[in-house]
Design goal:
Blueprint: H1 2-56, H2 65-72, H3 82-95, E1 117-123, E2 128-134, E3 139-148, E4 154-163
Antiparallel strand pairs: 1-2, 2-3, 3-4
């Protein structure tokens, strides 16, 4: 009887080991397959986001080689680096927000108690800027022209402005 009990215990231990081995080996395979699927999905998502970012930045000075070449072949003979120009133009435009009557380049007169200020700026190319502005209640967008003058000053001109309905 003791021998048969020992034999049953041995068979049970062997079966448990086989079951554990099979379970763990299949679990590793399952986890590897899941890892591959998740990695592939994440790579696809990342590529999709990169494509959307490229599309979103299509109209930007950073990606427009023709506009960049404009600054390299300007008539004044000096080369303007667009990487340094973008923050300078943006800062110069945002400096006008401190005007007590609001930023004059939003193309809108003060409507209520609050002044219109520019919130966000995107330089589209060597000539155009699009900007978002608001007075806290009313929002709008403006299309501006900008010029780099021979004395390195920046001047702006309102091309078109619009207000959104409340």
């Amino acid at each position: 009887m003791k021998k048969s009990l020992f034999l049953y215990a041995l068979i049970l231990a062997i079966l448990m080991n086989i079951y554990t081995y099979m379970f763990l080996s299949k679990e590793v395979t399952f986890e590897q397959d899941r890892y591959k699927k998740v990695t592939t999905k994440l790579k696809d998502s990342l590529n999709s986001v990169k494509d959307k970012l490229v599309d979103a930045n299509y109209f930007s000075l950073e990606k427009n080689e023709n506009a960049q070449n404009y600054f390299e072949s300007s008539n004044s003979g000096k080369i303007i680096q667009y990487e340094k120009l973008i923050p300078v133009v943006t800062e110069k435009l945002l400096d006008y927000n401190s005007n007590p009557n609001g930023n004059p380049y939003v193309g809108q007169d003060k409507i209520g108690a609050n002044k219109f200020i520019i919130n966000k700026v995107k330089i589209l190319n060597h000539r155009w800027i699009i900007a978002d502005f608001s007075d806290g209640e009313i929002w709008g967008e403006v299309l501006l022209k900008y010029f780099v003058n021979p004395d390195d000053s920046i001047s702006f001109e309102v091309n078109q402005s619009l207000l959104y309905q409340k």
